[in-house]
Write a structure and sequence with these properties.
mainly alpha
């Protein structure tokens, strides 16, 4: 091997070592980034579960609120029906009493 070939071989080895060093840094950075992405994936999965649970809870709360909102209306409707029935019964009772009184007086 000539001196020139030895110099060229030395340059190639030096370049290869430099590329190897550069590639190691790149691999280390990729490994760090991969770890960050894995951590984010786990975090997103946990947040998705929490969101699902929260959505179910909100749905239950909405159902309960709707039921509670309907109760006063049912109570008012029941009271109105009772009042109308009482008034109607009173009127018919008075009319019946009046007719009975008239029949009694007419005899």
């Amino acid at each position: 091997m000539t001196a020139q070939e030895k110099i060229e071989m030395e340059h190639r080895i030096t370049e290869t070592e430099a590329r190897s060093k550069s590639n190691m840094h790149r691999i280390e950075n990729l490994e760090k980034n991969n770890k960050i992405i894995q951590d984010l994936t786990v975090s997103i999965a946990q947040q998705t579960e929490q969101m699902k649970t929260m959505t179910e809870s909100v749905s239950e709360i909405k159902t309960d609120v709707k039921a509670l909102q309907g109760q006063p209306q049912k109570t008012i409707t029941t009271m109105k029906t009772a009042i109308i029935t009482a008034i109607t019964s009173l009127i018919f009772g008075l009319i019946s009493a009046g007719i009975t009184a008239l029949i009694t007086l007419a005899r």
